[in-house]
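Review this today:
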Amino acid sequence: MFAALIALPAFAHRLLGLSPVLTFWWACVLTRPLGACCAGWADVRHERGGLDLGTGSVSPALTVAIAASVARLSTGRRHAPQAST
């Protein structure tokens, strides 16, 4: 369900021509609950079905993962800008 909901802004932008700013924020708002669920699951005790990593471990790990992702994406191959019509 989350994958389908998150795909909607991409389709709306590409197929319907909706504003990139509008579709970015649409996707951002949709992914907030997913991120909170994942972080909560990693923090919760084993007895309650979580990973019991604790907030002190989860926050730095997510920070490193996000920084690595941003670094990787920013150094990736750049595409030539498309000519506007």
